[in-house]
TrEMBL record:
InterPro entries: UPP_synth-like, UPP_synth-like_CS, UPP_synth-like_sf
Job description of the protein: Catalyzes the condensation of isopentenyl diphosphate (IPP) with allylic pyrophosphates generating different type of terpenoids.
Keyword Cell membrane listed: no
Protein name: Isoprenyl transferase
Species in which this protein is naturally found: Peptostreptococcus equinus
Quaternary state and interactors: Homodimer.
Family the entry assigns: Belongs to the UPP synthase family.
Known cofactor(s): Mg(2+)
Pfam families: Prenyltransf
Annotated binding of substrate, by residue: 23-27, 35, 39, 67-69, 71, 73, 190, 196-198
EC number: 2.5.1.-
Free-text cofactor note: Binds 2 magnesium ions per subunit.
Length: 243
């Protein structure tokens, strides 16, 4: 395969890759530019990484785009992020569709501006039959909020006598989470040096591998992605067992 910077085994590429895209603001600051410039550049990285993920054979790609905590940011920045989401979808939808990418969201998108919801619904509908790569955008997503919502749904079903308490199991919980369309992540990448989850996929990462890089999201690229996958492939996933 062309453009392999590392000795990656294409048979053992993570099936589900999840990325905490961090460092847009710090990258922009280092260039003496406004934070929104960093977000704009970050969208270009998304384009590159979606394409490269598909090329390498990743089946599920989840991108943390906006957390339940990100509402705490200044309104101008939140607005800029929402506008970028709309322009990304408008600009990329045809190409994503052509490339066999299925677009999904995780999190509670009902709180997003109407124009975002419309664009997301349109994108999901148009790409719903695509099979090559499932791209999940985490929007107004929080791991705790997703678990809380699941607890409420299950409690209601118990109350309505739809299910028995004895029947509640891990698979059921996974099914009620908004991440229910994908498998648990094999590899979680966080850019920009921070080594924390920031409320991302709390239930789902039980046995994920983690990879942290100092590269800011706008400077993360195909080579950095391959490096992360190469690192992942050289780990021993034991899942609690012994060899
Ligand atoms: C990631 O970059 C994008 C979002 C969280 C939406 P940041 O905006 O968090 O950039 P830093 O961490 O402040 O540098
Ligand atoms: C996590 O990044 C959320 C996203 C990447 C969307 P943050 O920049 O919001 O996380 P903290 O505040 O540094 O933990
Ligand atoms: Mg950040």
């Amino acid at each position: 395969m062309e453009r392999l910077y590392y000795d990656i085994d294409l048979e053992k590429v993570p099936q589900h890759l999840a990325i905490i895209m961090d460092g847009n603001g710090r990258w922009a600051k280092s260039k003496m530019m406004p934070r929104t410039y960093g977000h704009k550049k970050g969208v270009e990285t998304i384009r590159k990484i979606v394409e490269e993920s598909k090329r390498l054979g990743v089946k599920y790609l989840t991108l943390y785009a906006f957390s339940t905590e990100n509402w705490k940011r200044p309104k101008e920045e939140v607005d800029a992020l929402m506008n970028l989401l709309v322009s990304y979808l408008k600009k990329e939808l045809a190409e994503l569709d052509k490339n066999g990418v299925r677009i999904l969201t995780i999190g509670d998108i009902s709180a997003l501006p109407k124009v975002c919801i419309n664009e997301l619904e349109k994108s999901k509908e148009k790409t719903k039959d695509n099979k090559d790569l499932t791209l999940s955008l985490a929007l107004n997503y929080g791991g705790r909020a997703d678990i809380l919502n699941t607890v409420k749904l299950i409690a209601k079903n118990v109350k309505d006598e739809q299910i028995l308490i004895e029947d509640i199991n891990e698979e059921m919980i996974s099914k009620y989470l908004t991440t229910n369309e994908s498998v648990d992540p094999d590899l979680v990448i966080r850019t920009s040096g921070e080594q924390r989850l920031s409320n991302f996929l709390l239930w789902e990462v039980a046995y994920s591998e983690f990879y942290f890089t100092d590269a800011h999201w706008p400077e993360f690229d195909e080579k950095e992605l391959q490096k992360a996958i190469y690192s992942y492939q050289n780990r021993d996933r034991r899942f609690g067992a012994i060899k």
